[in-house]
Amino acid sequence: MLPLKLAVLGGALSMSALAASAETFRWASTTDPQTMDPHAVNSAPVLSFLNNIYEGLVRRGQDMSIEPSLATSWEPLEGENGWRFKLREGVTFQNGAAFTSEDVLFSYQRASDEAADVRSWFAPVTDMRVVDEFTVDFVTSAPNPLFPDSIANFMILDKDWAEANDAALPARDAENFATMNVNGTGPFTLADRDPGVRTTLAPNGAWWDDASHNITEAVFTPIGNSATGLAALLSGEIDFIQPIPLQDVAQVESRDGFKVLEGEETRVIMFGFGHEHDTLLYSSDVTDANPFTDPRVRLAAAHALDIASIDRVLFRGKIEPASQLVPAGISGFSEANQNRPDYNPDRAKELLAEAGYPDGFSFGLKCTNDRYINDEALCRAAASMFAAVGLNAELSTGPVRDYWPQLREDDFDMYLLGWSPGTFDMEHPIRFLMHSQDDSRKLGSWNFGNYSNARVDELLPMVQQEIDPAARQSMIDEIIAITQDEVAYIPLYTQPLIWAAKDNVELTQRADNFFMLRWVTVN
Amino acid sequence: MIALLKKYEGLWLFVHSPAAIVAAMVAVLIFLGAVFAPWVALVNPYDLSSFSLFDGLLPPAWQDGSNPKYLLGTDDQGRDMISSILYGARLSLVIGLSALTIAAILGVGLGLAAGYYGGRFDAVVMRIADVQLALPAILTALLIDGIARGILPAAIQQDLRVAVLTLAIALSLWVNFARTARASTFVQMNKEYVQAAIMMGQRPTRVMFVHILPNILGPLLVILTVDLASAILLEATLSFLGIGLPADSPSLGTLIRIGMQFLLSGEWWILWIPTLFLVALVVSINILGDFLRDIFNPRLR
Amino acid sequence: MVYFILKRMVQSVFVMLAVAFLAFSLFRFVGDPITQMTGVETSVADQERLREELGLNDPFVSQFMRFTGDMLKGDFGFSYRTRQPVADMIADRIPATLELGVVALIISLVVGVPAGVYTALKPRGVLTQTILMTTLVGVSIPTFVIGIMLIFIFGVQLGWLPTFGRGGTVQIGSWESSLFTIDGWRALLLPAITLGVYQLTLTMRLVRAEMMEVMRSDYIRFAMARGVPMGRLHYKHALANTMVPVITIIGLQFGGVIAFSIVTESVFQWPGMGLLFLESIRFVDIPVMGVYLVVIAFFFVLVNLVVDLLYVAIDPRLRISDVS
Amino acid sequence: MLTIKDLAVKFPSRFGDFTAIEDVDMEIKPGEIHGLVGESGAGKSTVGAAVIGLLQSPGYVAKGSLRLGETDLRTLTPEQAHKVRGDRISMIFQDPQTSLNPLMTIEDQLIETIQAHSDVTEAAARQRAVDLLEEIGIKDAATRIKAYPHQFSGGMRQRVVIALAISTDPELIIADEPTTALDVAVQSQVLSLIQRLAKERQISFMLITHDIGVIAQVADRVTVMRKGRVMETGDTAQVLGAPEHPYTQALMDAVPPLDRKLERFRVPEANDASSSLGELAENWLLEGQQQAPTGLSLRNLSVQFSGPRTSLFRKPAPYVALDDVTLDIKPGSIMGLVGESGSGKSTLAKAITGLVTPSSGTMMLGDTALPFGKSRSRLHPSRQLVQMVFQDPYSSLNSRHRIGDILAEPLWFYGFVKDADEREKLAASMLSLVGMQPDAITKYPHQFSGGQRQRIAVARALLARPRFLICDEPTSALDVSIQAEILNLLKDLQNKFGLTILFISHNLAVVRQMADDTAVLRNGKIEEVGETHSVYTAPQAAYTKSLLSLTPVMPTSWAVET
Known about the structure:
The structure holds four protein chains of four kinds. Chain A is built from 16 helices and 19 strands. Chain A is an alpha+beta fold. In chain A, strands 1, 8, 9, 10, 11, 12, 13, 14, 15, 16 and 17 form an eleven-stranded mixed beta sheet that branches. In chain A, strand 4 (71-76) and strand 5 form a beta hairpin. Chain A is globular. Chain C is built from 13 helices and two strands, in the order αααααααββαααααα. The longest helix of chain C has 39 residues, at 230-268. The radius of gyration of chain C is 24 Å and the shape is globular.
């Protein structure tokens, strides 16, 4: 009797939920975009959210490819380094103002200002010029074939609107008008904003592109607690949530009316080493040397890790082991170097013995606990596996907020890092993670352990400027071979993307974990 | 005869209170388990080589797919649940008891002095207590944690985690001790044995600690018990809010926080077994606290 | 009596000042506000200019005076995280927390007081023992576990009540209330119960203890001896006298409500001050943390002043001076 | 009308049933005031509670019959019993401060009581309440009825309590120590009110008290109880004047007379065997007393306390506790200090011991001036020379300390005896000297009765080798027979060691027995001071005269000749 009653109730509820969803699409994620200003904060939640409201000169398609947006075409400049963009005509901002090259210039100046958090995107740019009302030039210090790819998140603001509202620069110590208000060209506009509580978007009727969604209103709610978020989905209060914990996939799949969207993010999770350190910082037994300078020791660490078990227990079979710093499918992926060190604890012990550490040694392992999926659990599992071959990791985990400063201060022996190639090309991790640190040229800026190889450093500029794909790939293959040989990093796996939605929702899961409302249809 | 029986009345009452006996047994069992964890537990959660991810997510012995070696199953790291719980209880009790010790020393000291000296000193102490009351336990703990994160170098934060947590809990609990000690001291100050001691010219410290303190131990003991329960819960709550202990040194609260991830995944034991354990421990301590309260408040008997 | 109230107000001012000082110290010494405000790539000279602009190089005392003065003017500074004025952020969240807290308090009183009276009058009854045991277990389960259990039972499995947020709210002036829609009440129910459970137990136990104490007093025995009807005896005589200490504790319990509202709000994604505070902690958003402290202290002081006034209302000994 | 036969009340406890009273027979006629007298633990209050059906849980009537007129009180259901309460039996409690609900006006409490038992309108009930208050002597009752209990003084409050008790016209009122908490003047008024009510309204009273004087003054008949049993019952004059039962006789012997001084009370002496053990202590005390007895003289001593602050802007009005007191206590003599509560007796003691700081005046102990209050250093010699015996033997000994430690503390603290074993020995010997078993040193205070504790307190005071002893109401918490023993002990010790004693008491009769000189204190002022005999026989001050006349005493004609 009771189960029947419950079933009836449940049915009634989901019907009412269906009725509601025809007009309003509700979704949740863990963090609230902290500002509506596209240049103030360089963080994924903000950029992902604002991509629904603002647009850049170029944008990424469902498969991550670059496609025209506010620019209709672009070509390298002749006679100097840089790119010329032809702008789309007849585009208006949400307040009705026309979009012109002045807005691009203004947005460039705004985004590259000292107060902007995103100014590093424009590090290669030396000058920007307005050619005519619908043509702009970006001049770069060197040939930069990937420049258009790198500015997909560079969003254009209306100059007059921003200046009239005293928001000519991003807010720094106090809010300004752009923190809470928007005026973009994108498919949606802000209807209501209650920070940390609820943000409501409405379709932009005057959008220049054809709207493929059928949403009349979209409500975003941040839900920090993953259990609460999942409960909200399962009780029908929201239509979609991004992400859900891996271990709850089975639960969602087992229920009628819900589906799980699984994909692979482009983010590769890896361990890095303090290549440059003379001694270990966190060792209780080896205090006069840094064993990790020996590639054999680094290889031993790689052999100690049982990726299969990690996949089975921690990730429920949802990860793809990684051999290099980008997943297969990304341009520049080195087909020639697809093998990763296998799980072989005996070999690991041998290698350690060869390197002069038959009994192993202890060292410090730094990890985040709120950055990547199961990051803390991964590190604990890894530490346990390292210990099995004699590598005794002193694990220390912390929030990502404290993490980058620690890495920048070289405060580690080994560390966890996840890397997603912003340009969706292998050049990106080579530039940031493999090239020697070079502050003046902004190279190797995330190569915290300062892995350094002269040949890699030599090859990078060549890769950057090479136009011929085959020649370029062979140079990349050489770099990958070197770094694999020297075990510059231990790539572990590609992080999965797990979203969940009601069955009646169709949406696109893009590999950068950005959620685009314009591809949502509610049936 | 009656006098003799009266002397052991507490014991007598105890023998005739089944709830108290059960509670005491549970508490003692958990306490012993915690103390002897290194000898009793199958694996040591701190020794990463003693367990393996290979054994991860095994259910309790009575379910399919279990390994009889792990009676209550394993967590996502392959740690034996029983071992984790024993070590977790150990850490929870260490934090709880050290926090209580600090709180008791601070609170009883200030409360005694406030009650003894009265006047301005008392007023100042009570205003400080008001400020503390205005910032309730969780808030204080969150704040101290936040401050510690702001001013301590990130590298040593991990190592100081337990200390920070203990301090946070201690600071939020001292007011209870201070208020109780103060109120009881006021009562004792009017007792003639105290006046006799003051009249003799005994040092204030001697009057406070040798004469008054033994007479106000009863209510303090009750506070001690009840606050031990709060301290353990507080630690669990802070862990839930994500500012407790890291997962590699799990307290009971941390185990529950980790377990919350498995609420819906089918691995129920990872959440519910530590939760049950925590509830059993706290209920037992609370029952003992109630029992002590009854003993020390004969009017309610 | 006027003196009594005045004295309490002076004490309140002291508490407020002390908390303001704490908040200020937090703001000033935990982390460097300048590095929090600026990106990694701001030059040192630029930072120094900003420091001078914001008066962070002034003497400590004058900074504190300015801080307190600004607070009194309602200027609470800007959040590091969102760059919004903290005053607005907090003010937006106050209604949610207050409604949650008040409803939880009402639940705890409406259930706790009668339960306390019952268990005091029938100390040996089976029902009494059951109530006492159940509530003991109730306070021994961490609040967050209770909250999540409620969500899964009533939100997910039964589908009766919403699992998060405030549901339908109505804007009354600047006050966003969920008390005027059915939807709002449905959303309020689970969090309020979660928050109320702990207070309920405390209230019940306190009423019980006080009631048992009062029932032994001479005036109750005298009222018994002159045959005052039992109902009147229990409620008019005993309960009224019980209320004085109970009100005190409810005043002090305010702290508990606020504290546990942080947990409850986090579990139910309830958009109150507690949730905001938690987010601020996560991002070391010191200005918000500091102002939250001051606001909480202000409410605490306010509640305790109300408690004092209630005392005066209940107890004629405070209201009317001795004339004999 | 009230007939009690063979009554037994038991309290089930974890150690088996404890029989509180047994074989109690008693009869009270209409309009009769029946005294029920006995020392603590005699079970007097239990009888009263059993009659009105308010035995403290879990006590119960185990046996016997209780009849009120034709009603068998034992067969009533709880509801019927509650109806009888107030309607036919009412009760007056000891402490008027606590027996009225502080949150309700007098009017509300009276009206609810009247309406609970008779079907009258509120207006009628109010009229009756006003009439009642006027009848029992509250002036301006129509206005004052609106007041709350705390607005009445203690005596007035007890009148209100009585008004409440008689508001329903009960046949019987159980008055449990109704005047114990009151000063003599008020006590006398309340007692005459009771007498008047008994006579005019024919209300029967069961007057429970420990005060033989009160019984002698108002009771028609009296029942003497001891340890839960009735010892003797009969007409007051007969029982008190010519007691038949040995217990009653001993009791009467222990009652201090107001009109003459006894050398010693006739009480069974403590066993002499212990006296030889006490030699060690006696010799130790004597050897420390080379100095001659030390007197104390107070000159113009005033003590002010700050009153409660009522305004932020005005300084609180000071409360004068002692006003210009001048007093000389001759070396080696006993000075009696009498006064009602609030007269400043204890303040004087505290001023001398340094617990309270006088605002002006001088204090001389022998030839040395005593510094005031906090300015007296912790090592000042007077801290040893002046010792005190307190009123409440239950709070004057630290219940968490062993008797041995309590007694050894002064020996250690003043540096008399360095060796711990020696201290123990001396302490044990001192116990013998005050009439206790020396093995008591291993026990804790709660293992002793009030009288024994008071002996221990005296022993502690002596172990400081004092020259000046203050006894602040040393016997007011004790039963008369114990009081007699303690008074004898104090007299003996004073004789033996030449102590100077300030003996403070509210009990005029006790002071008469003890003091060489007597001072009468009232509102912080000395009303009269002089040689005890002349103060008692020929008082000069009007206040002294009224005190002496209002103190309830046994008629001299009843007194048993010694």
